[in-house]
């Protein structure tokens, strides 16, 4: 993925603000520990849940059990938003990633992702049958969300909203 260029949205930014650089957003996605996944239930109601995710190869990856609510929701509607950032009101950067969740089943890629989950989150997964496995009762489907759009909200002075679009 080539480095995207951000566009400042002056409507929601301090007049002194400039667009946040991609490197700031990349750092938040790489080092974020908890992301809030938003999916849509079959009846149109939203479902939001916190989970760890891994930013790699230009996509944000997460996992879920097929029988969990988010797994059921993704089966019917793969459009998602993942949000991360800081609880601080006047400092830091919050990031929202919008895109389509696509199932990852490739063994070598899953093995690499399992290693990243271990390094970044301390979770131990083995790979088998196109999914993550922890034990005989806890299989997890893995999804990749390649961004369609990313919004970065700079907090503090100057506050800003930067939009990154992807083709």
Automatic annotation (TrEMBL):
User: Which Gene3D superfamilies does the record associate with it?
Assistant: Electron Transport, Fmn-binding Protein, Chain A
- Per the UniProt record, one Pfam family is PNPOx_N
Assigned keywords, A-Z: Oxidoreductase, Plasmid
Segments forming domain Pyridoxamine 5'-phosphate oxidase N-terminal: 26-151
> By what name is this protein known?
Pyridoxamine 5'-phosphate oxidase family protein
